[in-house]
Amino acid sequence: MTPVSRRAFSAAGLALLVAGCGKREAEQQGPISRREGVTGAQGSGPEGSPPVVADVSRGLGRSVPVRLSIPAVGVDTPVMRLGLAADGTAEVPPLAADDRAGWYRYSPTPGEVGPAVILGHVTVGRYGDGVFRHLARLRRGEVIVVRRKDGTSATFAVHAVRTVARADFPVEDVYGDVGRPELRLITCGGPRTGDEYRDNVIVFAGLSSTAS
Prior knowledge:
Elements: H1 3-19, E1 37-38, E2 65-70, E3 75-82, E4 101-104, E5 114-119, E6 143-148, E7 153-165, H2 171-175, E8 181-193, E9 196-211
Parallel strand pairs: 3-4, 5-8
Antiparallel strand pairs: 1-7, 2-3, 2-6, 4-5, 6-7, 7-9, 8-9
């Protein structure tokens, strides 16, 4: 990961604490959990050994994601690109009836070495449930498939699901350097007051296979 990308990661991680589960959700964004600890996995985060096999440990070249599939929780969604908002916070997908997940474009593309980051909503205001409404139900070993613009697919296996208080968002665990291709899925959850959610749900996954 380049120094520039690392700086952007850190900024975005901190931005999630400010905007990822706050008042702006009522205007443009949806949700992110607490029951501090792990949901559906042993251990407390990415320190568990991710199921990455040797022949894909060096990953794929860069190609942006176009579709995300998570069969275990009924997700099959196009993927849009997200950057930084004018105020320096991480962008999130718009609140819309055709809710989609979004790839944070300052992170590696899924399948590249490093932590690719994809965000999505739990709810989308008056439109109801969001694309990541069941993200916290994922369990260790379940499959996440990302189709890329170059026609290749990167398949990941979940190795941990964490539900953490916003104030304790693990910036380094989510955005920090790793020497293998990994994936982070982020949404909101936990107790809700008005349009605000108290916590973040974070899924950690490692690349398990690739296909053309």
